[in-house]
Amino acid sequence: MFGNTNPDWNYLLMNPTEEQMTGLSDVGYENHRSIKPIKVFHYKPNQTLHIVLSGKGTYQIEDKTFYPQKGDIFYTPANVSLRYFTDSEDPWEYVWFSMTGDNLSKYVYLLSLDKDSPCRNLNDLNKVKDILSNAFRKTSLDPTQKVFHFTSAFMEIIACEGKCITSHTDQKLTYVQTVKDLINKNYASPAFTIDALCSMMHLSHSYVCRIFSNIEDCTVASYMESVRLAHAADLLANTNHNVSRIAAMVGYNDPLHFMKRFKLKYGITALNYRRHKFLESK
After folding, report:
1. Cα-based distances in Å from 14 to 61, 164, 165
2. CA of 210: how far to CAs of 118, 176, 198, 219, 220, in Å?
3. Which of 25, 49, 208, 264 is the most buried (most CB within 10 A)?
4. What average pLDDT does the structure give for the chain?
5. pLDDT at 6
6. What is the pLDDT of residue 258?
7. Which of 186, 177, 50, 24 is nearest to 116 (CA)?
8. Please, what is the Cα angle at 269 between 265 and 274, to 5 degrees?
9. Alpha-carbon dihedral 60, 52, 95, 48, rounded to 10 degrees
10. Maximum CA pair distance of the chain?
11. Which tens digit of pLDDT belongs to each residue from 90-139?
12. In angstroms, rounded to a whole number, what is the distance separating the alpha carbons of residues 139 and 152?
């Protein structure tokens, strides 16, 4: 698609001023026919979106494996163990956008991508190709404005492929629902903290906590604890697991801390709660 372009246009590294202004750190085009694949796991310093124009390959992130191919977009988060490499018989051709900063991180979510689901089909590959071709064409005519040509192309792709957000309030409500969904999905893991949640959403800690408390009238921490304790109450009432095991099952490493928080929430010890529920069932 872009194989005949000047090599200078195939890779664009933003200078610090451009990066601060646009949120993009670099943009590039890659044809993997002549590149030796890197098959070792590594960590990337920036988040990157890859738009696969042709070919196919393998993408592994931690313990998950995906097979991005023509018409897919795949996302590589920063500072996560991963590797991706092209198919030897049908090599990739893709354009990538690397990003920094919380503002552009939000676009990853708008594209329905995250660490757990980092790959999906494009809704309209031909339109995305047209957007990219236009950016490369404009760059060939006016290379002094290449930063703005590719920033514009990135925003056009978001407009083409992103979720519909009708208002700023709608956007915040969407983020809050995502917070709830992630908590309900991951509450059982002691490693699931607010920082881990924010990392999954690729938003700052302060931003997530602020919009959540403004809309829900409670903190993210209190909501997370209420979910964990509600599940613990259900386990106390409906299983024979001991308190220490239940504490571990709902994300508490310290059973004593769990028992203190449970009593503060329900006004009764965990064991007395179980006895009370047992008597209620008779």
Report:
1. 27, 29, 29
2. 26, 10, 12, 8, 9
3. 49
4. 87
5. 45
6. 96
7. 186
8. 105
9. -30
10. 82
11. 999 999 999 875 545 667 877 888 888 899 999 999 999 999 999 988 88
12. 12
Which residue has tokens 């676009």?
107
Q: What span, in angstroms and rounded, lies between the C-alpha atoms of 81 and 62?
A: 6
57, containing H or E segment: strand 57-61
**pLDDT above 70 (res 86):** yes
- Tokens 């990739």 identify what position? 92
- The answer to whether residues 128 and 155 touch, using CB atoms and an 8 Å cutoff, is no
Give the model confidence (pLDDT) of 44-53 as tens digits. Answer: 888 899 999 9
Bridging pattern class, strands 47-54 and 119-121: unpaired
H-helix segments, the chain:
16-22, 102-110, 125-141, 146-161, 168-186, 194-201, 205-216, 220-238, 243-249, 255-266, 270-281
How far is Cα of residue 59 from the mean position of the Cα atoms in its chain? 15
Provide the residue type at 193 as one letter: T
CA 273 to CA 175: how far, in whole Å? 34
The distance from CA 193 to its chain's CA centroid, rounded to whole angstroms, is: 15
The 8-class DSSP code of residue 26 comes to E
Residue in the structure block whose two tokens are 């959540």: 212
The answer, as to whether pTM is greater than 0.85, is no
Type of residue at 42: H
